[in-house]
């Protein structure tokens, strides 16, 4: 691939353009908002100048409702040899493109499974897709050259290609992406009118659950409007589970010992089902989740403290597999949770204590 046209210079489009430009591809940028194009170009994502002729690949990065019309326009003006979109739903754009009378053999739907809570070109980064799954949804009619261009794009962005049927993809993202967004927002909404005393008790658990609730509502309305059925199906199942859980909790309030036992069994069942589902979430490098040991270290909020603790772990010959920081409300301190292989946890604990760190059990 020598040249590309990126149509839509938001977070995803600009990140694609930055990755391609960094690897020697000449990238042309388009957007209905000229200011976004100028910003993306200033970041080094490509040029505002239109291409002299058809580029190798056109990448359409616009909201799902606009994907088909924008693709159709690019096909009509013969902007590229191949066309690809990065919308978060795949079945609807393909069907709409066919309804518009476009030749879909030179089109391939795709979806990089990466993003951030922030939007716009200023949030973009060339590293956004590294190591992340990038779904490709070719059909029997997809031109081989277009599939090869799509695979090259994924490789240049250092992502991991995953081939799926378009409708299967939409059902999958309804479960692993779209429904979690709504549930996060629903939990966060409980905080909007909560008392100050309750909010001050917020810990890492509520921060984890509500992190993605900071996402742009307008963007999510576009996404959910393009995939409402599968999301509603998942939410209906969650609603049924919630109804059962509410009944179990009410039973725990009962004076009847038998009802309380049934309520406890119901709560335990849902928690164990959660354990089983969580265990299926891929861990480091996409492998099965590993059982890490956590070494919790008290750390002050001063420049260089994180660098120092990682350097001390390195001197001890210990590889930190994962890390989390739990901030202490109202204090200039927090806990750094270092996840390591169980066999080396005692080694790390001893080494950090020797270097003056305060270990918390």
State the gist of this model.
Helices cover 47% and strands 17% of the residues. The chain has 361 residues and is of the alpha/beta class.
How many separate helices?
A: 13
CATH superfamily of the largest domain: NAD(P)-binding Rossmann-like Domain
Give the overall silhouette.
globular
CATH class of the largest domain: Alpha Beta
Helix content: 40-55%
Strand content: 15-25%
**Using DSSP, what is the number of strands?**
11
CATH architecture descriptor name of the largest domain: 3-Layer(aba) Sandwich
CATH topology of the largest domain: Rossmann fold
Primary descriptors:
361 residues; alpha/beta; Rossmann fold; seven-stranded mixed beta sheet; 13 helices; 11 strands; globular
Please, could you describe this protein's structure?
The protein has 361 residues and is α/β, with parallel strands linked by helices. The chain folds into three domains: 3-164, Rossmann fold, CATH 3.40.50; 172-278, 6-phosphogluconate dehydrogenase C-terminal fold, CATH 1.10.3660; 293-360, 2-Layer Sandwich (Alpha-Beta Plaits), CATH 3.30.70. 47% of the residues lie in helices and 17% in strands. It has helices at residues 11-22, 34-42, 64-76, 91-99, 144-156, 166-189, 196-199, 204-210, 217-225, 228-252, 257-278, 305-315, 345-354, and strands at residues 3-7, 26-30, 55-60, 80-85, 107-112, 133-137, 160-163, 293-300, 322-327, 333-340, 358-360. The strands form two sheets. The protein has a seven-stranded mixed sheet, with helices on both faces. The chain has a four-stranded antiparallel sheet with strand order 9-10-8-11, covered by helices on one side. α3 (64-76) crosses α4 (91-99) and α6 (166-189) packs across α10. The chain is globular and about 70 Å long. 30% of the residues are buried. The mean pLDDT is 92.
């Amino acid at each position: 691939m020598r040249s590309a046209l990126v149509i839509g210079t938001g977070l995803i489009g600009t990140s694609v353009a930055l990755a391609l430009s960094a690897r020697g591809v000449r990238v042309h940028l388009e957007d209905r908002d000229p200011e976004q194009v100028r910003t993306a170009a200033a970041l080094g994502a490509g040029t505002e100048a239109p291409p002299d002729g058809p580029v190798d690949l056109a990448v359409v990065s616009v909201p799902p409702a606009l994907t088909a019309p924008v693709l159709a326009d690019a096909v009509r003006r013969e902007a590229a040899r191949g066309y690809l979109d990065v919308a978060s739903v795949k079945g609807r754009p393909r069907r709409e493109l066919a309804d518009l009378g476009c030749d879909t053999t030179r089109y391939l739907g795709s979806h990089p499974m990466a993003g951030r809570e922030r939007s716009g070109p200023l949030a973009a980064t060339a590293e956004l897709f590294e190591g992340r799954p990038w779904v490709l949804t070719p059909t029997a009619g997809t031109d081989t050259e277009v599939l090869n261009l799509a695979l090259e794009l994924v490789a240049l962005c250092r992502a991991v290609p995953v081939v799926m049927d378009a409708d299967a993809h939409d059902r999958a993202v309804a479960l692993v992406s779209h429904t979690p967004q709504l549930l996060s927002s629903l939990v966060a909404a409980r905080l909007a009118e909560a008392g100050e005393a309750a909010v001050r008790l917020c810990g890492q658990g509520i921060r984890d659950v509500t992190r993605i609730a900071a996402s742009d509502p307008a963007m999510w309305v576009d996404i959910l409007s393009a995939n409402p059925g599968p999301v509603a199906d998942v939410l209906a199942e969650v609603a049924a589970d919630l109804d059962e859980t509410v009944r179990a909790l009410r039973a725990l309030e009962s004076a009847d010992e038998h009802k309380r036992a049934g309520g406890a069994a119901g709560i335990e069942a849902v928690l164990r089902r959660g354990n089983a589902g969580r265990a299926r979430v891929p861990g480091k490098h996409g492998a099965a989740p590993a059982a890490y040991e956590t070494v919790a270290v008290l750390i002050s909020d001063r420049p260089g403290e994180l660098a120092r603790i990682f350097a001390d772990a390195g001197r001890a010959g210990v590889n930190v597999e994962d890390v989390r920081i739990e901030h202490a409300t109202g204090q200039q301190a927090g806990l750094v949770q270092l996840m390591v292989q169980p066999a080396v946890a005692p080694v790390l604990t001893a080494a950090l204590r020797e270097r003056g760190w305060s270990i918390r059990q």
